[in-house]
UniProtKB/TrEMBL annotation:
CDD domains: Era, KH-II_Era. The lineage of its organism: Bacteria, Pseudomonadati, Bacteroidota, Flavobacteriia, Flavobacteriales. Belongs to the TRAFAC class TrmE-Era-EngA-EngB-Septin-like GTPase superfamily. Era GTPase family. This is GTPase Era. Monomer.
Length: 293
């Protein structure tokens, strides 16, 4: 019997959703940083076996949207409730509640299996772990509970095995050699955005969108040109930095990651452009793959 289904990972920002998906896939598909709202899209990661296909969805952390971009991010989360065969609800040690009541109700009233993963237990002691386990099992009584460390791999294999058990009988939804639903350019954008999240402070990373305009694969090398979009002229200067040093660093680090990801030499050209208030502009958001309703 062949099994296949959608396994959608949801939870608050920064709890480790992307780390878990990458651990399952065994590749750095989703970017990971210590900042909240690292993930902005719903990203499929597909694990293929001879007799199964597990289609994981990494989603943005749940927040109360303050502007159009965030509203669109929450639409991705909503869509992850609609087609899930198994729901993974991830919380982290020390967390007390989900930031959105309506989503929380959807989880606790879910008719499909829910796995409640308490992540980052490497950061806790036995006493704290027991107290948190108790709290969450009472809050989400319909879920199966697993304490894990996505970072260190603790209990991750057990969760994986349980998901396989829960997958419905079904033929594969995607070709068996497919790893994700996103095109190559998406991963270029994300690699660059990750470096921006890592190296710039406060509002800057949240005002940035990256668009890869050129992706041209030659025999020995892939040539890419990407534009970093910011909302205001002052942000442009900050991104570029003194004599272009800050931008250079982003380009160098992103290129290294991309060479690993594509297994090939990469030439990456970066430039910065102001795209006024793109985060609140429906047309711009659609252009960047948001607002897909
Ligand atoms: N100590 C510890 N840190 C972890 C673990 N899993 C993830 N992290 C860290 O938590 C931070 C957030 O991880 P992400 O995987 O980006 O979290 P996310 O839930 O995808 O975050 P958003 O995309 O912003 O919603 C990163 O610094 C990770 O290294 C874990 O098991 N233990
Ligand atoms: Mg993420």
């Amino acid at each position: 019997m062949h099994k296949a289904g959608f396994v959608n990972i949801i939870g608050n920002p920064n709890v480790g959703k992307s780390t878990l998906m990458n651990a399952f896939i065994g590749e750095k598909l989703s970017i990971i940083t210590s900042k909240a709202q690292t993930t902005r899209h719903r990203i499929l990661g597909i694990v293929n076996g001879e007799d199964f296909q597990m289609i994981l969805s990494d989603t943005p952390g749940i927040i109360k949207p303050a502007y159009e971009l965030q509203a669109s991010m929450m639409d991705f989360v909503k869509s992850a409730f609609e087609d899930a065969d198994v729901l993974i609800y991830m919380v982290e040690i020390g967390e007390k509640e989900l930031k959105d009541d309506a989503f929380f109700k959807k989880i606790t009233n879910s008719k499909i299996p829910v796995l409640l993963l308490l992540n980052k237990i490497d950061n806790s002691n036995q006493e704290q772990l027991e107290e948190q386990a108790q709290l969450w099992q009472v809050k989400v009584p319909n879920a199966e509970f697993f304490p894990i460390s996505a970072l260190e791999g603790f209990n991750v294999q057990n969760v994986f095995n349980r998901i396989i058990e829960l997958l419905p009988a079904s033929p594969a939804f995607y070709p068996k050699d497919q790893l994700t639903d996103k095109p190559e350019r998406f991963f270029v954008n994300e690699a660059i955005r990750e470096k921006i999240l890592l190296h710039y402070k406060k509002e800057i990373p949240y005002a940035v969108e990256v668009d890869t305009e050129e992706f041209f694969e030659e025999e020995e090398i892939i040539r890419m040109r990407s534009v970093i979009m910011v909302e205001r002229e002052t942000q442009k200067g900050i991104i570029i930095g003194h004599k272009g040093s800050a931008l250079k660093r982003v380009g160098m680090e992103a290129r290294k990651d991309l060479e690993k990801f594509f297994g090939k030499q990469v030439h990456l050209e970066l430039y910065v452009k102001v795209n006024k208030n793109w985060r609140s502009n429906q047309t711009q958001l659609r252009r960047f793959g948001y607002n897909q309703k």
